[in-house]
Amino acid sequence: MQHLLNHKVPLLLALCCIPLQHVFASNGNDSVIPQTFLWIVLTMIAARLGGIVEKIGQPAVLGELIAGAILGNMILFNIMWFEGMKSNEYLHFLAELGIVILLFQVGLESNVQEMKKVGIKALLVATMGVLFPFVLGTYLIGPLLMPGLSHNAYIFLGATLSATSVGITARVFKDFSILQTRESRIVLGAAVIDDIMGLILLAIVSSIVKTGFFSITHILQTIALSILLLAGGTIIGGMIAKPLSKWLSIVNPGLSMKLGFALSIGFVFAYIAHLIGLAPIVGAFTAGLMLDSVHFKHFEEPEYVSELKHAVRNADPQIQQQVQNLSQVQQAKHIEHIVEPIGHFLSPIFFVMTGLAVDASVFMNPQMLLTAFALTLVAILGKLASGFFAGRGVNHWLIGWGMVPRGEVGLIFASVGRALGVVDTMEYSVIVVVIMLTTFVTPPILGSLVKKTSHS
Predict the structure, then answer these.
(1) pTM for the full predicted model
(2) Residue 267 CB coordination number (10 Å)
(3) Which of 311, 317, 345, 372 is buried most deeply by CB count within 10 Å?
(4) Range of the domain at 449
(5) pLDDT digits (tens, 9 = 90+) for 271-329
(6) Is the residue at 123 inside a domain?
């Protein structure tokens, strides 16, 4: 029996691989959608396997990038199965949708009032954290290490180095349980402001690339439109959202309407941003920043909140009050919770597809490796310098290193530059490595700084 199994198992594997390989290799129009289902499964599996890096204290985004880069470079081993993913238009759409959902989530998790409390320190840290890397990357390190590129390419390089990932920063501080420290509040506030400044910078840079000339008037117009969308959208949009949500809750107060209302606001703002010449992600971020728990108070409360209240209806008044307080918190965060699974599905597609575009062969060139490490050093030093603008009474190194991770925001910058044809495959691969390195080195260094601070 064992002898038969030893022969049958390889035969079964071979039979399975024949149709699988046929599906991978087929380019017919009638197989594009079924192929896409398969690519989505592979992307999700790759993303989840990439999550293994979390076990060694690294953010999952790093693993997703690595997983995508591995799949994208299997061609170096004469494995062509995954090449179809790179040109699949449906996957690219899902990746773009993932970007919009991601920035929408970042906006939802941000709080305008909390940003105001952080004050001038966060503003200074954010401003210098954008200014230093941008100037160094655009006018010094870029032309020095990567000569011969267009000025627009150097501008995009500087813009990419200026970004900070608020998601990665928040995750790192949460993992180390220092969210309530003064340094953490400054960094998180600065990271949110950094995101807004970065989105405005992205809008300006994209506008320069599209128009082909440097116009002060056009740049001022772009800044005005960005501020108008961010500030006006947050204020005016918030005023419109209240009566609209109340009317929709009358039509249907359930979860489906609640989710549909939130996503519709996000997509409408993304479209408005596109209409006025800004990146759709700017509109998505604005929509998330605009929406507040007050916009959903007329909808039904989450089912688990109702069940929890029902379970303690005969309990001690103090317990009932605690449950009531907890219920209010959960209800306020409910829209973030119901959007989160969508982000879990779509965001990894963006990261894996981003990694998929990395051409590992370019790093056979020692000059490219030197360039990547040098740019990483500049990216780190630029953010570390910003930490010393946080004033007295704080750990400047902790704040500086908290601003170092580039993560998804930097990837978005690089992806936009690549889509506009400003950044080629080689430059894109170098930028992605810089982003990966800044993401990878930050958690262990922050951990060491936190331990030193707690023991001092």
Answers:
(1) 0.70
(2) 18
(3) 372
(4) 86-455
(5) 988 887 677 877 888 888 788 766 677 777 777 777 777 777 777 777 777 777 776 66
(6) yes
